[in-house]
Amino acid sequence: MARPRKPLLSRDRIVGAAGALVDSEGLEAVSTRRLAAELGVSGPSLYNHFRTKDEILEAVADAVSAKVDLSMFEEGDPRDWREALHDWALSYRAALTAHPHIVPVLARGPGRRPAGLKVADAVFGAMTRAGWPPAQATHIGALMRYFITGSALGSFARGFVDDRTAYDPADYPHLQQAHLLADHQEKVDEGAFGTGLRALLDGLGCQYEAGGYRKA
Amino acid sequence: MARPRKPLLSRDRIVGAAGALVDSEGLEAVSTRRLAAELGVSGPSLYNHFRTKDEILEAVADAVSAKVDLSMFEEGDPRDWREALHDWALSYRAALTAHPHIVPVLARGPGRRPAGLKVADAVFGAMTRAGWPPAQATHIGALMRYFITGSALGSFARGFVDDRTAYDPADYPHLQQAHLLADHQEKVDEGAFGTGLRALLDGLGCQYEAGGYRKA
DNA sequence: ACCTGAACACCGTTCAAGT
DNA sequence: ACCTGAACACCGTTCAAGT
User: Where does the record locate the signal sequence feature (chains A, B) (predicted)?
Assistant: First the structure.
């Protein structure tokens, strides 16, 4: 075939196919050969559009970050910082749980991914505008990311095996219901996320008032 | 060589070498061939002691979990649940940051790893004894894990590239100091962890009191 | 510029063969 | 029981060759 008159591939087509493959079969299913086959092309062709396989996965991750709602952090938005953080966290978590297999890539940090940086920028900007000192605003961006990516990465409930015999009462006296966790996984993880988010925001509220911070 | 009179390998030796390799060169450096070479043995030999490479990594992860201090959750310990949770979180985080490369494996959940299950058991037992209803105790175990593994996995500061030109002021007006984050990485991550942990515990304290819970 | 097949240096795992 | 080498079916990436 050699070079076609119209390019067979584009960065967007590659990212789209890679994302679909990640979603349907997981990160380990993505090999350059497999992905190329999915696109009707031979393996090395991908290297005309991306320098490495990792760059492709970074682009898939960034596409997920781009879906996070940031409107609550805009200058004119009426929500106060607590409410904005709350709504953003829900949107962020929803984006991640819709594409759980790419979360390990996202959890590495924003790196050079534009949408990842946009998120960090929006949070930091909104927190400083709300009166938080820069160091505290940085901490808030970090700790919210810890909590959100941590919750999306290690679904707590899915982390327990669905097998009664794994939990010997002599060894784990308090885990005798653990094998049931996998069943109502979603409810447990959502409940824990909600409880944690509320605690986090309540606690930050205390620190905000104790510090005497207020809107500039 | 064939079968030696004294076994060349043992599960412990394999786990030790794998852990050392993970710590020094990262997860991707661990291949069965490379690990076997490190042990002076041929690749397939490992399969006499572990069923898969993943089982070896699970064992490495469990060795790290085993280092987490759980004494604060023992029945006789004088610490109240808030203080116990606090001290445990610090010990957990210290164990993870000492072996950052294995965290992605740990973050998948306890699975069948004995030390991982011991941790979950201890937290759940202590929270129910403190008066939390079972569902809430489960949530607390989950959300603490989200926060702790999230913080160890995606070092926030290391997540930003150390390159001024990556942060165009037009795109990211609030990230003009971001390239400095990598420098005082440890301080930022520790600060954010401390801020988040305090907020989490303060917030949980509010919920505890609002719920009217108390020690059985 | 953009695709191809061949090639390089790897993988995890299985298995028959050795003692 | 516990090690070996050979083999299978894969990897990511490079590169010369084609148009």
Answer: none
